[in-house]
């Protein structure tokens, strides 16, 4: 049996209002039923089951005890898909031999290998649940879980919402989320209760400490088809974007906006490099929404870069320039205003709809176009074929933009910079498919060239930000001197790097493309 559910974290206000909204929308036919669930998760002293991706649970539901084994758990974008096998456990007694599925039973017994099974954690949850239905026939159970997780002498509160599919389409779960939360504010739940319990037992918390999330490698495999690889790349992009949305809402770390912008750019690049299998009206719409959000985040990121990475760097290196620290402070105050604005945008309905629709696109095969009769064949193509075509296309575009490199205008340099960035993202997506000894030299030379174009972009950003109508320091001679200093220093750095750009491009151009 497979359990499929969409999971979100809740705050107190949301959980108290939810049932009224479900009734008003006529999604729920009756009142919710509330019961207390006590669950005990068990494992060997070495956590052999956890290492194998298995959760073993005894649950008391009213007067009944139920033994459950969960396997093959996947949780992406709030959507949990897991194999589940249950059987009665009279008196709350564990009995591996009673597991009804022979394959699951043999796997659990093999993993336990005679070791003692002991409690790892316990959850005590008050669950309010009711069945919901949509006009298209989709039926789901909406459950609001409020309670605590206990492990290792510690406890932590948990408020979680689950929308579990009973019958109908997977996409219906996302439709229900849209209907129940039209105003925004949702957060995907990224961990199962079992995973939270293990974290509490081992590290003392049920969620890892919130921190900016960098892009991670995607473990692509040459045995995959193009659709599977595209899905895995998009899952990584979604996770980076969704995590950093929360980071910006709750932390002042300037790395949060930086990583969110990177995540959005990687997402749009993934759409582009996988267009042969993903292209659809919904992909185009999501790409445009990612572009809009990237522009919102970009304004804050740009001023953070100028204030912290450029002006403060000059202030630390040249303490005899008294106008530099006040200039950095003035820019930081402007950044604070932009951060406040962004914190109003991110919990709003538009961003939430984008994240839910992106998760639906990734997990419910939102790229399928019924009228496209050749799509099935393209989706089933080997991933290596997709990678070769996508990398070749990106490389060709870079080469076209780089012609006559030393004579490029400012606008042409900017376009080349964007193509280099897209190429780098494509290389990072598909690099696991190729030997590192072939990928690394190409990527190393590409990054060096990107650094040159990054300095050019920084110089342009400094000039635009410090000479525009909203530039700080108008009428202040010390500030004007500092502005001139920063513009000159950033321009000199950019020109110095540009002097070696032709050599760096030649080095990259001579590197054998690793995908051929």
TrEMBL record:
InterPro entries xrefs: CHAD_dom (IPR007899), CHAD_dom_sf (IPR038186), CYTH-like_dom_sf (IPR033469), CYTH_domain (IPR023577), YgiF (IPR039013)
PROSITE patterns the record matches: CHAD (PS51708), CYTH (PS51707)
Domain (CYTH): residue spans on this chain: 1-204
Annotated ranges, domain CHAD: 223-516
PANTHER family cross-referenced by the UniProt entry: INORGANIC TRIPHOSPHATASE
UniProt protein name: CHAD domain-containing protein
